[in-house]
């Protein structure tokens, strides 16, 4: 992966967000808005898909580097990036913009939101690949913890990245080459149930529901709104073993829930729309 490609994406996101943060206090011309719109619209997402074509060690390393540069923008609601009590209407009125200019800025924000959601989806696909191939298990560390280690090293400009990579490489040599997805520890009912595997639901969906096919069955015939309500409800409940009934969408799993439900034909709306319904 060319890290400069990730830096360029970060720069475009930063430049766009800065427009809205300074809105009302700085002049904005139509040309600059159009140029920024074109930059956003032409972002090349192949930089993410190319990660999984590299060596196992490089995939984890590149994912963490990309996460480091883009983590500030990986939010579920892009409005969270704006200052508290942000009032778009009062800001544009203060600038005396005409309706055309206002519409251009609104379209820029819509595109900005879409780009952020797309980046999240692409990074999630890389993360999902890492987890499915067991690369994070080889490291014997949750991926987010490994990420934080590399972020800390990068932020302080430390010199020990090579030692971390060397440790990753040694761990990788000790791993099996199995491509089967590892089940989360402690969910014996999901791991050992032959009935679960006989269902027609995808393995990714079964993992999210900890093998509780009865819950998935209950979603059949429900509206998207009802399905979102039930998932939000179940994610807060515990099973008889005092463990979470299902995964919690808040744990950076909204997009995965939406994607797996879509792949299994349980929801009608698109992945991006449904993921926003999960709180």
Explain what this protein looks like in three dimensions.
This protein is mainly α and 279 residues long. It folds into 2 domains: 3-173, no CATH class; 188-277, no CATH class. Helices cover 62% and strands 0% of the residues. α1 packs antiparallel against α6 and α15 (254-263) crosses α16 (271-277). It is globular. The protein starts with a helix and ends with a helix.
Short structural description:
Helices cover 62% and strands 0% of the residues. The protein is mostly helical and 279 residues long.
Distance between the termini: 33 Å
Kindly name the structural category: mainly alpha
**Using DSSP, what is the number of strands?**
0
Q: Strand share of the residues?
A: under 5%
User: What is the domain total for the residues?
Assistant: 2
Rounded to an integer, what's the Rg over CA atoms? 21 Å
Query: Uncertain regions: pLDDT < 50 for 5+ in a row?
Result: 144-198
What's the helical proportion of residues?
55-70%
Number of helices: 16
